[in-house]
Design brief:
The structure holds two protein chains of two kinds.
Chain A lengths: L1 H25 L6 H29 L8 H22 L6 H41 L2 H6 L3 E2 L14 E2 L2 H32 L2 H16 L2 H23 L8 H25 L3 H9 L4 H30 L2 H6 L17 H9 L8 H34 L2
Antiparallel strand pairs in A: 1-2
Chain B lengths: L3 H37 L4 E10 L2 H4 L7 H4 L4 H12 L6 H8 L6 H11 L7 E7 L2 H7 L16 H12 L3 E5 L1 H5 L12 H32 L5 H15 L2 H15 L7 H25 L3 H9 L4 H30 L2 H5 L20 H9 L4 H36 L1
Antiparallel strand pairs in B: 1-2, 1-3
Chain lengths: 401, 419
């Protein structure tokens, strides 16, 4: 069908081109002949594609019976095409502003592409909200947000009696924040200190050499980090624990958090780098001028001045850590565990979303809906964190402009 | 007040902290690479055993029909067993025999079948053919199973060791380049599994992503940077949305794909088509943001020159500004595609995580992607899969390094052109 429309469009292009070429022989034209041809082709094919799409949407959602009149659809599209084509064709005269018309269409197309971002956000919002709504109809929102027991029924036991499952998400939140906290304990100091060193102490050559290297860490896929956590970090931590006489679970929060920290280091350091470089030079020069050492200047002048920006950056990093999936799916635990002990296995929101949705199951069971409710919470937490962080960073930038 | 000496000592210590943290970051990077390479480099070789196969007429084609449709039902496994009996004769007892035959990968009979299908005239001849060894044998030959461990801790017992020693002394067990890894899909047996299926799945998904997100991303960037009215509430809202999408966790995009594409539009589960759609929504913000930066860095004189000569705004933008910014846009797109290639969380949610042996032929066939294959293999405890996981990671990293260096090269070239 689209092929036929394309063919018709091409013929329309040549028709418009010919007419305008003939006009040009006697009279002056406002736009070059090509514009007339293209306008004719675009106008009429757009009209017929629109007809097609509208027909299909109506058929699918409103009048299913339309399906039996499919053969008229082709006929209708053809009529619409020839109608708009003749209309545009008759418009082609020496003063007709074909280019302006075409440019309007182009701009409209660009605008609709830009609006896609809004559509996607709305789509995310609606899909998560709708499914969560259904979930909260069966499980009260209070139980979900403040319950401390999480055991959604597992697919193997689905036909078992009495396994309705408990959906208290508190252990998931604590697990998520525990792992994110461990990650920030690693990434915060290391990222910040390396940013300070690279921007204040390192020579230009060292900086140009080291910076891309640390940025490699940001480009490694998270599934690779997950594998690294399982195969190297977790056994290492467990063995060290054994030697010290501490029992550490092989899926400990510590291992997942550590590796997630490694992943976030470049993120923290590149944001801190930007922020530190945005501190006005005269603040630094003033401090150095009255005899402070470099480190005193950094600790007492630059960092306090850059603090809002640094905090904003750290918040962005936290939102990254909370939303990160693959590392925790591979390295963190599967069952919910309400604890603050980093040596024990905890589970996170993202892990549970994956567990609930991977595998075959009907779509309307509370289990799958619970995943959307978790997604909703995740969406809001990251949204709020991002909003606060970006707000702080922007305020901070304005302060020094 | 501190005296000068302790202040300077503090200064030194502070610098050391900085160097120390950089060293930690770099050494972690090195540990990561070394551990993956050391786990996985052996996977690029596979162990094969040479068998003297007798394409026996009585087993394959007793009625001498030479018709493939009849021959294909024959017991090809018998050929393998006979050949194994021939090299290691005198093994008695069912249990022992089974153990002996297990040295050879179960793919051997399929290989013979393919050979006969290719050339039916081979029936009745005798040929020496290299077939895959079982994964445990493979691990032993590569040294991942230590021969000096006590028997109870080894997956290969003493008798099997003896047989392998016989094979070694006859020089009919050897390591070859691992063709299986690059020509096969997933398999339950590690020695028969490969990444081709996952690679094709990734390729399909990325094609969709590129086809959708590149034009839309660039159109959005051009509009926002060149045509959008300033101080317009709607445009501000669009910009806020784009920045937000860039920061939303990738798994949420998976939920979107599940709810909208799979449930609402009824698209097939596990299909690269849906994966590509989801990934393109995810990479759009990256492409838009970097394309806008590229457009911003085009000197205004270029546009003004075109406008001054009488070009319309649209003509000036599309014929003069966009061509100059295009390399910068390519850079952003490549970086976005590299991200999409490494992304796995949303693909898990839309069901691209499944045990799929067949290599996908179309965009709607069930498929996995390379990172998902890594995830699936990483979940399998067998040593043979650990090795293959690392190898798959190396292949993935090679692609990423290639894409990122291409992006860096383009950016360098572009910056030179503009200045």
């Amino acid at each position: 069908m689209f092929f036929i429309i394309a063919l018709l469009g091409v013929s329309g292009y040549f028709a418009g081109l010919r007419k305008s070429l003939i006009i040009r022989e006697k009279n002056t034209l406002h736009s070059t002949p090509i514009y007339h041809g293209v306008l004719l082709a675009v106008n009429s094919s757009l009209a017929s594609i629109l007809t097609l799409v509208v027909w299909l949407i109506i058929e699918k959602n409103i009048f299913y019976e339309l399906k039996f009149f499919r053969e008229y659809l082709y006929f209708l599209t053809f009529i619409v095409f020839s109608f708009t084509a003749t209309l545009t064709y008759n418009k082609i005269k020496h003063e007709f502003k074909a280019r302006d018309n075409l440019e309007k269409i182009i701009k409209l197309f660009l605008l609709s592409c830009s609006s896609l971002a809004i559509l996607v956000t709305i789509g995310i919002f609606l899909s998560v909200i709708f499914e969560s709504q259904k979930f909260f109809n069966t499980i009260p929102i209070i139980d979900f947000l403040f319950g401390t027991h999480w055991s959604p029924q597992m697919p193997i036991r689905e036909d078992q009696v009495g396994s309705s499952g408990a959906f208290g998400a508190v252990p998931l939140f604590t697990g998520t924040f525990l792992i994110a906290f461990i990650a920030m304990c690693i990434a915060g100091p290391i990222g910040l200190m390396s940013a300070i060193y690279l921007s204040e102490y390192a020579t230009k050559n060292v900086r140009n050499f080291i910076k891309p290297l640390t940025e490699i860490l940001a480009g490694i896929p998270t599934v690779v980090y997950g594998f690294f956590a399982v195969i190297v970090v977790a056994p290492f931590i467990r063995n060290t624990g054994e030697q010290l006489g501490i029992s550490i679970a092989s899926e400990s929060a510590l291992a997942a958090g550590l590796v997630m920290g490694i992943m976030i280091i470049p993120f923290v350091s590149s944001i801190s780098d930007d922020v530190i470089n945005a501190v006005p030079r005269n603040l630094k020069d003033g401090s150095l001028g009255i005899g402070a050492t470099k480190s005193e200047t950094i600790i007492k002048v630059i960092i306090p001045a850059a603090l809002p920006g640094i905090i904003g950056g750290l918040l962005l990093a936290v939102s990254r850590a909370i939303g990160e999936t693959m590392i925790v799916v591979m390295a963190a635990g599967m069952s919910a565990n309400l604890t603050a002990n980093p040596f024990e296995a905890v589970t996170t929101v993202t892990v549970q979303i994956v567990i609930l949705l991977v595998g075959d199951q009907e779509f309307d069971s509370p289990k799958t809906l619970a995943a959307f409710a978790l997604g909703l919470v995740l969406f809001f937490i990251t949204l709020i964190l991002n909003y606060i962080a970006l707000h702080i960073v922007r305020k901070y930038r304005e302060q020094y402009e | 007040m501190n005296n000068l000496k302790s202040r300077q000592a503090k200064e030194k210590r502070f610098q050391l902290y900085g160097i120390f943290s950089i060293l930690i970051a770099l050494s972690l990077l090195i540990i990561l690479f070394v551990s993956i390479v050391s786990q996985g480099y052996t996977a690029f070789k596979e162990t094969r055993i040479q068998l003297p196969i007798n394409f026996n007429e009585e087993i394959l084609d007793p009625n001498n029909t030479k018709d493939w449709n009849i021959v294909k039902k024959a017991n090809f496994n018998k050929l393998v067993k006979n050949a194994v009996d021939e090299i290691i004769p005198g093994v008695e007892g069912r249990g022992n025999k089974r153990k002996l035959y297990k040295l050879i990968s179960s793919s051997a009979e399929y290989k013979l079948r393919d050979l006969v299908e290719e050339n039916i005239e081979i029936i009745g001849t005798k040929e020496k053919i290299w077939v895959l060894a079982d994964d445990d044998v493979d691990m032993l030959i590569k040294g991942h199973i230590k021969r000096d461990l006590p028997e109870s801790e080894r997956r290969i017992d003493n008798q099997e060791l003896q047989w392998i020693a016989i094979l070694e002394s006859k020089k009919i067990i050897k390591k070859f380049f691992n063709k299986t890894l690059f020509t096969k899909g997933d398999s339950a047996e590690s020695e028969q599994s490969g990444i081709l299926g996952a690679l094709i799945g990734s390729l399909f998904a990325l094609t969709i992503t590129l086809v959708l997100s590149f034009p839309i991303g660039i159109a959005t960037a051009v509009y926002l940077e060149e045509f959008a009215p300033k101080n317009n509430k709607f445009i501000d809202f669009v910009e806020v949305n784009i920045n937000n999408l860039a920061a939303i966790p990738s798994i949420i995009f998976g939920l979107l794909g599940l709810a909208i594409f799979l449930n609402f539009f009824g698209m097939p589960r596990s299909a690269p088509l849906v994966g590509g759609l989801v990934l393109s929504l995810m990479t759009l913000p990256t492409i838009i943001i970097s394309s806008r930066a590229a457009l911003k860095s085009v000197p205004p004189s270029i546009k003004e020159g075109a406008l001054g000569l009488g070009a319309s705004n649209v003509q000036a933008v599309f014929q003069h500004v966009v061509p100059v910014a295009l390399p910068g846009m390519f850079t952003g797109t490549i970086i976005g595609m590299a991200q999409a290639l490494g992304e796995s969380a949303p693909l898990l949610i839309i069901g691209m995580v499944a045990f799929i042996v067949d290599i996908p032929q179309t965009m709607t066939d069930p498929a996995t992607a390379l990172p998902i294959q890594i995830y699936l293999w990483a979940d399998t405890p067998e040593r043979g899969f650990v090795e293959r996981t690392s190898a798959a990671i190396m292949v993935l990293l090679v692609f990423l390094v290639f894409m990122n260096s291409l992006a860096v090269y383009l950016r360098k070239k572009y910056e030179k052109d503009i200045n």
